[in-house]
């Protein structure tokens, strides 16, 4: 349930005699904005009681989520930080990586304004088509605009939403760079760890989730959203001029992705559900 959802009153009643573990990826519990605006004093009170009295544990997707919860509420229950997970049977690196003379960029996710689709358009129009290729995978409000955009650019293509993890893994492995220019809130960034598992380098804006997964300039690149297109174009030039060791960065991505393998994440979940020390 999203923070400040007014249905908390009914949920507390239903779960009154149950052991509750609450999972959240919302990173801004100390701010004045939430998925549900203006919840009202009664709803605020119900959430306070829920978090401070009802739950056995809280599982947060990021350390920032944990920090702001502790800053805002007097929570007695243990709080764990558990990221999302990937299945290495599907998200694994290619056996061999060709030394291409161009860079293949990929976007995977919702086709919406706040995901920075138009920032990628700027990048496409500012890079040489001979040395860059772009693929959009997903669906959303801007899908028709993406289709129209790609029809007039020979180095750009659109793939409709892919439901199969196996097929998605194959798409990742055929690319070099994942672009994630989120303009608002990115609580975690599932596509980042999927890409890393396949040896694809993530390039993102400086949102909370990506900043906790990526070590900048080691296993990915993090840029301010105000200058994201310019920085990506600069990175492209460095890659083409071999001023960036893209192969070494890939290896760091693969190593980092192992922290999010199913077996590793399952161990932390077991601690949270059993009440072991965090």
Automatic annotation (TrEMBL):
Domain Glycosyl transferase family: 99-226
InterPro entries in the record: Glyco_trans_1, Glycosyltransferase_grp1
Matching Gene3D superfamilies: Glycogen Phosphorylase B (3.40.50.2000)
Entry GO MF terms: glycosyltransferase activity
Pfam families, sorted: Glycos_transf_1
SUPFAM superfamilies according to UniProt: UDP-Glycosyltransferase/glycogen phosphorylase
Listed name of the protein: Glycosyl transferase family 1 domain-containing protein
Upper lineage: unclassified sequences, metagenomes, ecological metagenomes
């Amino acid at each position: 349930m999203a923070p400040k959802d007014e249905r908390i009153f009914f949920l507390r009643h239903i779960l009154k005699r149950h052991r509750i573990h609450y999972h959240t990826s919302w990173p801004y519990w100390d701010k004045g904005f939430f998925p549900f605006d203006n919840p009202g004093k009664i709803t605020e009170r119900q959430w306070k009681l829920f978090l401070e009295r009802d739950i056995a544990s809280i599982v947060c997707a990021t350390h920032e989520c944990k920090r702001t919860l502790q800053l805002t509420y007097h929570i007695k229950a243990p709080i764990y930080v558990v990221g999302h997970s990937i299945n290495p049977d599907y998200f694994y690196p290619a056996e061999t990586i060709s030394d291409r003379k161009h860079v293949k960029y990929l976007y995977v996710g919702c086709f919406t304004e706040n995901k920075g689709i138009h920032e990628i358009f700027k990048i496409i129009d500012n890079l040489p088509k001979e040395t860059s290729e772009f693929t959009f995978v997903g669906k959303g409000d801007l899908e028709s605009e993406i289709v129209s955009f790609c029809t007039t650019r020979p180095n750009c293509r659109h793939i409709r939403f892919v439901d199969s993890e196996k097929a998605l893994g194959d798409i990742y492995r055929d690319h070099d760079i994942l672009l994630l220019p989120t303009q608002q809130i990115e609580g975690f960034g599932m596509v980042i760890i999927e890409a890393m598992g396949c040896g694809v380098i993530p390039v993102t804006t400086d949102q909370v989730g990506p900043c906790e997964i990526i070590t900048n300039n080691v296993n990915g690149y993090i840029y301010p959203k105000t200058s994201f297109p310019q920085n990506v174009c600069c990175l492209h030039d460095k890659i083409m001029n071999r001023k960036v060791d893209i192969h070494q960065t890939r290896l760091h991505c693969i190593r980092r992705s192992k922290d999010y393998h199913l077996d590793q994440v399952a161990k932390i979940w077991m601690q949270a559900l059993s009440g072991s020390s965090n």
